[in-house]
Design a protein that fits this description.
Blueprint lengths: L25 E4 L8 H9 L8 E4 L3 E2 L12 E5 L6 H8 L3 E7 L2 E3 L3 H9 L12 H4 L6 H6 L9 E6 L2 E6 L6 E3 L5 H16 L2 E7 L16 H16 L3 E4 L5 H7 L5 E4 L2 H10 L4 H9 L4 E3 L7 E2 L18 H14 L3 H4 L12 E2 L3 H4 L4 H13 L3 E5 H4 L6 H7 L12 H7 L3 H15 L6 E7 L2 E7 L3 E8 L4 E8 L2 E6 H6 L15
Parallel strand pairs: 1-2, 1-16, 2-5, 5-10, 10-11, 11-12, 12-13, 13-16
Antiparallel strand pairs: 3-4, 6-9, 7-8, 14-15, 17-18, 18-19, 19-20, 20-21
C-alpha cells in the first residue's frame, strides 16, 4: 500500500541549480509548428523576439516528433528527429536562451525497439520487465473496485490487449494504445531515464520537465496517481538532474491542494489553476476565486495562460482526486465557464473537447485562449497582464503569443482535439501576425516584464469592489497593475527614479498600431 504523499520529506526546492538565475518570460513552442526547425526557432529568438524571452520550452523534438501524441510518445528519446535538426542545434540555441526540454517518464512508444523486442519475444525479451502489464501490479488479479479506483484522465481502464511473444496480455497504457507505461521499479528503467537526462544536459538543457510524472507510481489498492512512489521518483530524478546542473519542472494536473503539496517536492511546478481563474475573473466579472488562489499558491511556480494541452478545468474545480474538498470554483461556476468558452469560440471548442475528440482529456477544454475570450483584444491583454504580474516564471505558448484562433481545419484533418490549439506557423505567417496591434501590444507587455528589475522585488495584492491591484516594489521602484474586472479594463503604472508613468489598456492597444514596437514606457530608463 502506498503511503500518503505528506509522509515523504520535501526536497529543498527553490529552482535547484538555477536558484540565483534571473528568469524572464519564456516561450513554449513546437519547432515544427513555429518556424519549422530548431534552427528557425533560434533565429526567431535572436531576431523578431530578441530581448523578450530568456528561455524556451522546446516541446518534444525526439524521433518522431509527429507520432500518436505529438512527440510525447518517443520511439527514440535519445535522438533529435533529423527533420527538425540535431543535438548541435539544441546546444546552439542554449547559447541564446535557457532551454527547457521534456523527459517522458511514464511511457514509451509501442514502436520503440525495446517494446518491439517484447512484442516478438514476450517474457524472454531482456526488456520485458521494463514495461507494465496489469499483472505487474496485480499478480494475483484485481477486483472491480481496485480497477475502477485507478485514476485516468480518459474514459475506460488503462489497459490495451496486445500479443506479447504469442501470449495475449493486458498492457498498461494510461494515455493511448501507442504509449506503453514504464515500470519505475526496474533498474533498466532508471538506466534509461538517467541516460536521457545525461543527453539533455550535455546538449545545454538547463530545466528538465517531467511529463506525466504523476502517473508513474502504480500501487495496488491505490488510485495510482501521485503516490509515494511517484514522489520518490521525483526526488531521485531531481537529485540526478541537479548533479548535472539542471533544475526540474513538474507537469501535474490535479486538485489545487495537490499543487500546493507537490510544490514542496520540486524545483518548479506549473500554476495550472491560473488560466481558468483568470477566465472566470474576466468573463464572470468575479476576481474572488483568483484572489483566494493568490493567497495560497506556491511561490516556485511557472505561470501559463495556455499550453499545448487544453485549458485545465480540473486544476480550479472539484474533482475525484480530492472528493471531499471543494475546488476554487464551484461546480456551477465551472459549468458556466465551460459554456462561456464554447459560446465565445462560436462552438468550435465544443468540437474539440470531451468525447467528441480523439486523444481526449476529460479535464480540459481545447481552445485557444484568444478564442476563449471571444477574440476580445482588451480582455486578452488584461489576461496576459495579470499573468505577467503574478509571481513566478511566465511562459507564453506560441499560439497565444500570436493571439491565435482555433484551427478548425487542422482539427478536421487530424481528428485530434488538442490540434485546434496547435496551428502550424510558417516564418512568413509569423511575420504577418506580428503586424497585428494586439500581438504588438502583448510583446510590449512581455518586454516590460523582461527588462524591469522591479519584478525581482516584493509582491503584494489586494482586491476591493471588483478591482484587483497587483504590486511589485523595490526600494526605488514600483510597478502596479490595477485591473477593473467589472469593466474588463486595466492600467499599468511604473514609478522609477522619481518619475511616474501610466498607461491604460486603450492607450496600449492604440499606440501599438505600426512602426517600431516601442517599450511600454519609452522614457522610464
Amino acid at each position: 500500500m502506498s503511503r500518503a504523499v505528506g509522509s515523504v520529506a520535501p526536497i529543498n526546492s527553490g529552482l535547484g541549480p538555477l536558484a540565483n538565475h534571473v528568469h524572464g518570460p519564456q516561450l513554449i513552442a513546437y519547432a515544427d509548428r513555429f518556424g519549422g526547425t530548431l534552427a528557425a526557432v533560434a533565429d526567431l529568438l535572436r531576431g523578431q523576439f530578441a530581448g523578450i524571452f530568456s528561455g524556451v520550452h522546446l516541446l518534444p523534438f525526439y524521433t518522431p516528433f509527429d507520432g500518436a501524441d505529438a512527440g510525447f510518445d518517443p520511439v527514440d528519446h535519445m535522438q533529435v528527429d533529423p527533420r527538425l535538426g540535431s543535438w548541435a542545434d539544441i546546444r546552439s540555441l542554449s547559447k541564446t536562451a535557457d532551454v527547457i526540454a521534456d523527459i517522458i517518464v511514464n511511457h514509451m512508444s509501442t514502436d520503440s525497439r525495446q517494446f518491439d523486442d517484447v512484442r516478438a519475444r514476450g517474457d524472454a525479451s531482456p526488456w520485458s520487465r521494463m514495461f507494465l502489464t496489469m499483472s505487474s501490479i496485480f499478480p494475483q488479479g484485481a477486483s472491480e473496485e481496485e480497477l475502477t479506483r485507478i485514476y485516468r484522465p480518459r474514459p475506460g481502464l488503462p489497459f490495451t490487449v496486445m500479443r506479447l511473444g504469442g501470449k495475449v496480455r493486458l498492457v498498461w497504457t494510461t494515455f493511448t494504445p501507442q504509449q506503453v507505461d514504464l515500470d519505475i521499479r526496474e533498474p533498466m528503467t532508471w538506466n534509461y531515464l538517467s541516460a536521457v537526462i545525461d543527453q539533455l544536459t550535455r546538449s545545454g538543457v538547463t530545466t528538465i520537465r517531467l511529463d506525466a510524472v504523476g502517473y508513474t507510481g502504480k500501487v495496488a489498492g491505490s488510485n495510482c496517481f501521485m503516490t509515494t512512489e511517484s514522489i520518490e521518483l521525483i526526488h531521485r530524478l531531481s537529485e540526478y538532474a541537479h548533479q548535472q546542473g539542471a533544475a526540474v519542472l513538474l507537469e501535474v494536473h490535479g486538485h489545487f491542494s495537490q499543487q500546493v503539496e507537490i510544490a514542496r517536492h520540486a524545483d518548479l511546478v506549473y500554476d495550472f489553476a491560473l488560466p481558468p481563474l483568470v477566465l472566470h475573473a474576466i468573463l464572470g466579472r468575479d476576481p474572488g476565486p483568483l484572489v483566494k488562489w493568490l493567497d495560497i499558491r506556491p511561490p516556485n511556480a511557472v505561470t501559463v495562460l495556455d499550453t499545448h494541452d487544453g485549458i485545465g478545468i480540473i486544476d480550479a474545480g472539484a474533482n475525484e482526486l480530492r472528493p471531499s474538498q471543494p475546488g476554487l470554483l464551484s461546480d456551477a461556476q465551472v459549468a458556466t465557464l465551460v459554456e462561456s468558452i464554447h459560446s465565445n469560440s462560436g462552438g468550435t471548442s465544443r468540437l474539440a473537447t470531451g468525447i467528441t475528440a480523439s486523444n481526449l482529456d476529460l479535464y480540459q477544454v481545447n481552445c485557444t485562449f484568444y478564442d476563449a475570450l471571444g477574440r476580445d483584444d482588451y480582455g486578452y491583454l488584461l489576461a496576459r497582464a495579470i499573468q505577467l504580474f503574478v509571481p513566478g516564471i511566465p511562459q507564453v505558448y506560441y499560439v497565444g503569443l500570436l493571439a491565435g484562433t482555433n484551427d478548425v481545419e487542422l482539427l478536421a484533418k487530424t481528428g485530434v482535439g488538442r490540434d485546434i490549439n496547435r496551428h502550424r506557423y510558417t516564418t512568413n505567417e509569423i511575420d504577418e501576425q506580428l503586424l497585428r496591434p494586439v500581438v504588438r501590444a502583448q510583446l510590449r507587455l512581455l518586454w516590460f516584464r523582461a527588462e524591469k528589475s522591479v519584478f525581482n522585488g516584493e509582491f503584494s495584492h489586494e482586491e476591493a469592489g471588483g478591482r484587483i491591484r497587483l504590486r511589485w516594489r523595490t526600494r526605488s521602484d514600483e510597478a502596479l497593475l490595477e485591473a477593473d474586472m467589472l469593466r474588463a479594463s486595466f492600467t499599468i503604472s511604473l514609478s522609477s527614479n522619481g518619475q511616474s508613468h501610466v498607461i491604460s489598456d486603450r492607450d496600449l492597444l492604440s499606440s501599438s498600431q505600426g512602426g517600431r514596437c516601442a517599450p511600454l514606457f519609452p522614457n522610464s530608463g
